[in-house]
Amino acid sequence: MPESLERAQSSASESTSVRYFASPLKFSHDWITRPLFAVLLAGVAVGATILGGFAFVVFLVAGTAPAAREWHRLFAKRELWQPTLVTVFAIVGSLVSQLLWQNPHGIAALSPFFLLWAGAIAQLPLAFWRQESPIAHAGGVLYFGIPALSLLLLRLHPVHPLWLVLLLFAAIWSTDTGALFIGRIVGGPKLAPRLSPGKTWAGFFGGIASAGLFGAAVAEMAGAKLLPASLFSVAIALAAQMGDLFESWVKRLVGVKDSGGLIPGHGGMLDRIDSSLCAVPLAALLVLGFGLDPLQGIGR
What we know:
mainly alpha, disordered N terminus, 2 domains
């Protein structure tokens, strides 16, 4: 083999190896807009969580309503107001009923969930009439409604609800941030190249590690035990990344890159909360369903 050809192949091999194990960092306006709007949105979320009550419900509706609109737009062939209105009304009714009757008895305790299912069922004939996917539109009510209701239930939990929600937020946000930065810095094998070409295994484990560390940090601030909070945050990190991948799969299915452009540096509201849509129901299941207390020893 000619020496020049060998050098060329060697150079190409080295170049491929470098690209494989590390992603070159290039300046982008997202470096400014993404963290800026992330901090602003996080501030709103923390403020609403501290206030609780109707302020928290307004916060939940403000997040789910535009995300629901973006979801229905993925599957709609005509104007969006009809399926979006059904979804938003179902979610608002569910949240308000839960807030007003926090300790109902008997079947009344399930009324918020009945309202969500009623909204999902109402989407079916509407979707058939519009000649669109009934499963996608009906599923949208539950896709956004169950996480929103779950988050409200956690905020109304009788055992240190404020710290509980703050721990959950910290786990989700640190997962997204850790996965983004570690994935870009380290690079390496792709996590799910067909669904999301930018995600790597390094980012996946980086997000989990970041969530565990931040969960322990929140527990330390709250005066709780570190290990339960850290393990809880790791579980939330796994669910958050599954939620991210699910939305990537849906967008790939319909052939779009971003669900919208509402938030500079993030895309649409759905792109921003996709991790929470899977992580929050898991948190509610662990805390409300199995009685887990991730902040054991708080206030010691």
